[in-house]
Specification:
The protein is α/β, with parallel strands linked by helices and 377 residues long. The chain has two domains: 193 residues, Isopropylmalate Dehydrogenase, CATH 3.40.718; 161 residues, Isopropylmalate Dehydrogenase (3-Layer(aba) Sandwich), CATH 3.40.718.10. It is 40% helix and 20% strand. It is globular. The protein starts with 13 loop residues before the first strand and ends with a helix. GO terms for molecular function: homoisocitrate dehydrogenase activity; isocitrate dehydrogenase (NAD+) activity; magnesium ion binding; NAD binding. Belongs to the isocitrate and isopropylmalate dehydrogenases family. Its EC number is 1.1.1.87. InterPro entries: IsoCit/isopropylmalate_DH_CS, IsoPropMal-DH-like_dom.
């Protein structure tokens, strides 16, 4: 995205909180750390190991120590989160550390690009051009986790509260348009005439109150810009579109090239961005950054993959790209771009792929070595 930031400091190390958490997070985050350190133009880093996760909860009774929160808030410039093994059933006293971290640090946007070389075993005619980014609202929707269960004559009844606010929806809409502006500028620099478009993903034909509020709040950002400027304003040249979430999924697989910047409530954004990973080959390739206006925490989109822990088979590319994405948003664009290009070259060569990708037999360590070779050549 090539953002600049006041977080760049001359003369001192950039302090990055490293939160491996569970499963393969402990295997892929050290790879990302070494790649960041080796990247041309990278600043000096001070990496701080911090604890969180379900496995920590099982031992200590807490999934996110206050010390981790305080260290991130008070002395870190950015952070990387590995993966979490949140159980699919209720565990008394447990809550997801990543969900809480997003709230504690006001990381209201989860930005998930899906782009780069396509690594699938589909015939060439089915491989689509993919260059989209999902801007997922990160603090509310069903993720406020207000659930109840009660008995009735017909059995148990479970309810979940879904919260959509004008404030959060407007804020994420503004972030989506800011990302679109950067993508537009980058395309213009490259002579790329592809249109820049923001698509609102919703289901307001059914959820007319909650999704209706999300839809109108995002649209109001665009309309207010035009009204303020008496016509085309800062967002001139950006198209605004909308798509129902079910047809969004259908079109995403049929015509991914029609999507550019997608802005969505928390749940929809989570689902469609995970699903979009299939378009490029694997969740092991897809990065994200959790963003406030001043703090950025990279996070690979994949889970903790307990079935392959300790087998040296985890794909580290999502973690490496997440580190680059964090650096990019912090303003360190040169090392970020160098990392992106090195990863793309490794994928295009197709010789060093982990088993989650078609024909892949490489180990985590071998992928790291390949990326470092390309980074330093």
């Amino acid at each position: 995205m090539r953002f600049t930031s006041a977080l760049m400091n001359v003369g001192r190390a950039v302090r990055i909180g490293m939160i491996p958490a569970d499963g393969i997070g402990r295997e892929v985050l050290p790879v990302a750390e070494r790649v960041m350190t080796a990247a041309p133009g990278a600043p000096k880093f001070d990496f701080v190991h911090l604890d969180a996760g379900f496995e920590l909860f099982q031992v200590t009774g807490t999934s996110l120590p206050q010390e981790t929160i305080d260290t991130l808030k008070n002395s870190c410039d950015g952070a990387l989160f590995g993966s979490v093994s949140s159980p699919s059933h209720k565990v008394e006293g447990y809550s997801s550390p990543i969900v809480r971290l997003r709230k504690e640090l006001n990381l209201y946007a989860n930005i998930r690009p899906v782009t780069g070389p396509v690594v699938t075993d589909l015939p060439a005619q089915y491989q689509k051009h993919v260059d989209m980014v999902t801007i997922r609202e990160n603090t509310e929707c069903l993720y406020i986790k207000q659930e109840t269960q009660e008995d009735s004559p017909n059995g148990k009844i479970a309810r979940a509260t879904r919260q959509i606010t004008e404030h959060a929806s407007t804020r994420i809409g503004r972030k989506a348009f800011e990302v679109a502006l950067v993508r537009k500028a980058m395309r213009e620099q490259e002579g790329n005439k592809a249109p820049t478009k923001v698509t609102i993903c919703h289901k307001s034909n059914v959820l007319s109150v909650t999704d209706g509020l999300f839809r109108t709040s995002v649209r109001s950002v665009f309309e207010a810009d035009k009204k303020k400027n008496g016509g085309p304003g800062r967002y001139e040249g950006i198209e605004l579109d909308e798509q129902l979430v079910d047809s969004m999924v259908y079109r995403m697989y049929r015509e991914p090239n029609v999507f550019d910047v997608i802005v969505a409530p928390n749940l929809y954004g989570d689902i469609i961005s995970d699903g979009a990973a299939a378009l490029v080959g694997s969740l092991g390739l897809v990065a994200s950054v959790n963003a406030s206006d001043t703090f950025f925490m990279g996070e690979p989109v994949h889970g903790s993959a307990p079935d392959i822990v300790g087998e040296n088979r985890a794909n580290p590319i999502a973690a490496i790209r997440s580190a680059a994405l964090m650096l990019e948003y912090m303003g360190y664009t040169d090392p970020a771009m160098a990392i992106y290009k090195a990863v793309d070259r490794v994928l295009l060569q197709g010789k060093t792929l982990t088993p989650d990708l078609p024909g892949g037999k490489a180990t985590t360590a071998e992928v790291e070595e390949a990326v470092l070779r390309e980074l330093l050549r």
